[in-house]
């Protein structure tokens, strides 16, 4: 959209003809608020010139025959002189008051008729203009609709691009990128203001137009030999002031976009470096955690091995005990009785004995 606007501006400015030896005539700005108000006022003045202005208070400004009859002769002469432009000689020839009354009544009626005719003409002119506008809108409605769609698409593309740039700045935390986008927004607004001012300067003037310098180039004077008269065409030239400002805006836009690109690249590199450092730190923590887990696993394995060995020793002791019991159960009854008697004898003589002495 910006390139299209710039192309239109260059085309419009390239064909803009201005007087060479002095600045363009300064036209008093209309009393309106903003460029749109000035445009509406200018169109109203072009379509309805001041001579077609309708004075809606004409009935109160013109006097009737009854009101004129009640006036004094001196007041009638004063009104004829001030309002209708009668001279002293003409008023001096009107001696009778009836002549003064008839003359003023005729002049007031003539003013009233002029206002009525002007009102009819303006109403007819308004009707014709509205009819032509309606016909043109109906005829060129597809073109207008297409132009509106193109403008809407360009606006959506512009806003989406700016939103994407802002989201990237927010993603990379680049304050320099935010500042660059703000500068781009200001430059785009100034470019749009310049383009609108140049296009509307063909049909109107306004104090709200973009202030452009007057730098005329006169091709005829450049082609005319030195010391010769360039003629009527030598008095005109091309104002390249808007071209220079437009080129300056494009230059600034390119530099700001380059600054934004550099800032985004630096922010991306910083983010990549931070991500790598964070990844290294996480890997280091994971390795330390794995090492601690392996150490704890080894410690648990040693404890489990000791527990298994202890349980194995207890099982072996139990097996020995069971085997001894089994051997005791296999001893014959006679041998057990003999051993019992021996034990009793040994106990009687002071010897200690046990039923399991022969087991070992």
UniProtKB/TrEMBL annotation:
Protein name: Uncharacterized protein
Record region (Disordered): 270-317, 331-360
Highest classification ranks of the organism: Eukaryota, Sar, Stramenopiles, Ochrophyta, Bacillariophyta
Keywords, ordered alphabetically: Membrane, Transmembrane, Transmembrane helix
Biased composition, class Basic and acidic residues, residue ranges: 272-317
Biased composition (Polar residues): 351-360
Keyword Transmembrane set for record: yes
Annotated transmembrane regions: 127-144, 178-203
Organism: Cyclotella cryptica
């Amino acid at each position: 959209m910006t390139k299209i606007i710039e192309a239109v501006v260059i085309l419009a400015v390239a064909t803009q003809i201005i007087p060479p030896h002095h600045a363009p005539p300064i036209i008093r700005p209309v009393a309106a608020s903003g460029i749109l108000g000035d445009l509406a006022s200018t169109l109203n003045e072009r379509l309805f010139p001041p001579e077609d202005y309708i004075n809606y208070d004409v009935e109160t400004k013109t006097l009737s025959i009854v009101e004129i009859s009640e006036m004094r002769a001196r007041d009638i002469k004063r009104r004829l002189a001030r309002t209708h432009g009668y001279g002293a000689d003409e008023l001096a020839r009107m001696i009778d008051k009836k002549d003064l009354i008839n003359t003023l009544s005729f002049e007031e009626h003539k003013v009233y008729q002029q206002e009525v005719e002007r009102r009819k003409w303006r109403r007819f002119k308004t009707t014709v203009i509205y009819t032509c506008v309606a016909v043109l809108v109906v005829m060129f409605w597809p073109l207008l609709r297409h132009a509106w769609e193109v403008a809407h698409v360009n606006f959506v593309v512009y806003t989406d691009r700016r939103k994407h740039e802002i989201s990237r700045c927010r993603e990379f935390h680049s304050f320099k990128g935010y500042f660059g986008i703000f500068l781009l927004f200001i430059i785009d607004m100034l470019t749009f203001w310049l383009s609108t001012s140049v296009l509307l300067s063909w049909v109107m003037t306004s104090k709200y137009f973009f202030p452009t310098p007057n730098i005329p180039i006169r091709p005829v004077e450049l082609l005319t030999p030195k010391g010769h008269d360039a003629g009527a065409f030598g008095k005109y030239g091309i104002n390249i002031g808007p071209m220079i400002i437009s080129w300056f805006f494009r230059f600034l836009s390119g530099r700001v976009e380059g600054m934004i690109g550099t800032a985004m690249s630096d922010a991306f590199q910083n983010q990549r470096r931070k991500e790598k450092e964070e990844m290294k730190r996480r890997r280091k923590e994971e390795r330390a955690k794995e090492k601690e887990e392996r150490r704890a696993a080894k410690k648990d394995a040693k404890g489990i091995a000791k527990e298994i060995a202890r349980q194995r020793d207890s099982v072996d002791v139990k097996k020995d005990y069971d085997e001894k019991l089994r051997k005791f159960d296999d001893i014959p009854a006679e041998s057990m009785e003999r051993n019992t008697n021996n034990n009793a004898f040994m106990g009687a003589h002071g010897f200690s004995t046990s039923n399991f002495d022969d087991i070992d």
